[in-house]
Amino acid sequence: MTAKRLLFSLAHPDDESFGSGAVIAKYVAEGVDVSLICATDGDMGTIPDAMKGQYQTIRELRVAEMHCAAEKLGFKHLFMYGYCDSGMMNSESNQDPKCLWYNWQNEPDVVVQRVVETIRTVKPQVIVTFNKYGGYGHPDHIAIQQATEKAFFLAGDPDYAGSDLEPYQPQKLYYTAMPGLILRINLVLMRLRGQDPRKMGVNKDLDFVAVVENIEPVHAKVNITGYLQAWDEASACHASQGGGMASAFPMWLRRILYRTQDFTRTYPRPNRNSVDERDLFTGVKLEL
Fold first, then answer.
1. How do residues 222-232 score in pLDDT, each as one tens digit?
2. Which of 48, 139, 144, 264 could hold 86 in an S-S bridge, CB 3.0 to 4.6 Å?
3. Burial, 221: exposed, middle or buried (Cβ in 10 Å; 0-12, 13-18, 19+)?
4. pTM of the model
5. What single-letter DSSP state applies at residue 286?
6. CB contact at 8 A, 144 and 9
């Protein structure tokens, strides 16, 4: 078993690439076993009409894109939980018994159990998930974040009755940290363009002000300057979702804006809200 193991616990196909593709590529290149939980199949995603004829369903397309990105990034394990997508908060589609948000509201212990069993299978020292707001307030992001945080501690509890697998306690839990400066610049630009930042996105249901208000402190900054191309290649797999926004900037500007991918350490709790780590494995005790 490789000494270092890292688990990303996310919601949709593309979350791994658009948000964390560079840092994942970095750790894989350094020999870390990186695994991914993708809780949903992305079947509620909006896709261009030109792409609909290549697959029978949106789900098939999004899953194929997920496997493409997984191959590009080099995940050790990919766990597809197969829940249907939820819509944004208060969407009618969230009443679908197959969607993640419905399951989280009605059978949270089952969702937590799945994450616990994944943790006990992979045995990661470090786990990464969304922040408490789910990045931009998406119910699926919030559901998997809350499930992962509960599972982080239950996985090491020998009295937990939900799994027969051997208990295993991860050592560190991080949230992906939204790039505060870039988000604040975008907020200013939206207002200058006359846009309502509380009604953004294709369906006008993304509250960008709330995104900025829910930015968490950054405790770890991991250098990704050598992995922008790998980030692009993984993001390009998700062509139906636009292939990622980072590549829209010229490379010289990206090297300035995206020198690091940032993280909030939620366990162990930091003594102060300042950057004190350049590696997610700082302080991790590795097995002999």
1. 999 999 999 99
2. 139
3. middle
4. 0.94
5. P
6. yes
Task: Please state, as a whole number, how many other Cβ atoms lie within 10 Å of the Cβ of residue 200.
Answer: 19
At the fourth CATH level, the homologous superfamily of domain 5-178+216-267 is: LmbE-like (3.40.50.10320)
Lowest mean pLDDT among 43-52, 119-128, 244-253: 244-253
Q: Are 17 and 67 in contact (CB under 8 A)?
A: no
102-161 per-position pLDDT tens digit: 999 999 999 999 999 999 999 999 999 999 999 999 999 999 999 999 999 999 999 999
Where in the chain are the domains?
5-178+216-267, 180-214
Q: Which amino acid is at 207?
A: D
Q: Which residues pair with 128 in a beta bridge?
A: 8, 174
Whole-angstrom CA distances from 209 to 102, 120, 147, 183, 200 are: 26, 38, 25, 9, 10
Q: What angle do CA 198, 66, 212 make, to 5 degrees?
A: 20
